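Supplementary Note 3. Input sequence used for the single-chain structure prediction.
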Amino acid sequence: MSGLPKIFNTLVEALSEFPGVGRRSAERMAMYVLKMDPVEAKNLAGLIAEAHQHVKPCKQCNSFTKDDLCSLCSDDKRDKEFLCIVEEPKDVLAIEKTSHYRGLYYVLMGALSPLEGITPQDLNIGKLLNYVQRSGVKEIIIATDADNDGELTAQYLVEKLSVLGVKMYRIAIGIPLGTQIEYIDPATLSKAFLDRRAVT
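The predicted structure, written as discrete structure tokens, is reproduced below.
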């Protein structure tokens, strides 16, 4: 027995459902919530409820937005001939921070995972194919994660999109900048050699 009310354990269990949050982290978060000023706690709960009520998937790319189209899809300055396919909205944020990509995105909202029962139907691959066919996209960049599910998803996308006559690229995966070779894990180093490019 922890000596704490049952509602505390229920809160911890709910917080531990967040990605990357273990039991110990969830307990610290729950403790922080309980120590919050009641007004702050109420505001936090209200923000969560408001976000859940008003934020929805973009009709074009599936990322989060308050409107029918997100700010990127509705931006006339974006290059509509380029489409970057990512797994999650957080990936869009990461790529945008580089300032090196000015095309549009398509967010799968996950990756194929036979072990978890996630199929192409769960990722709306059909919607993606229809969009590519009617949108005038000429180049596609597949930017799924470099794990097993991400690689499986990338292979599936290449198979399905190759019949549409668009150029396709997979983001390079290899050695991070500033890292010494001796500290690179074998899988990453092998991938860097396989994806080597010519020097001009």
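Residues 61 and 145 are 18 Å apart (CA to CA). The chain has a mean pLDDT of 90.
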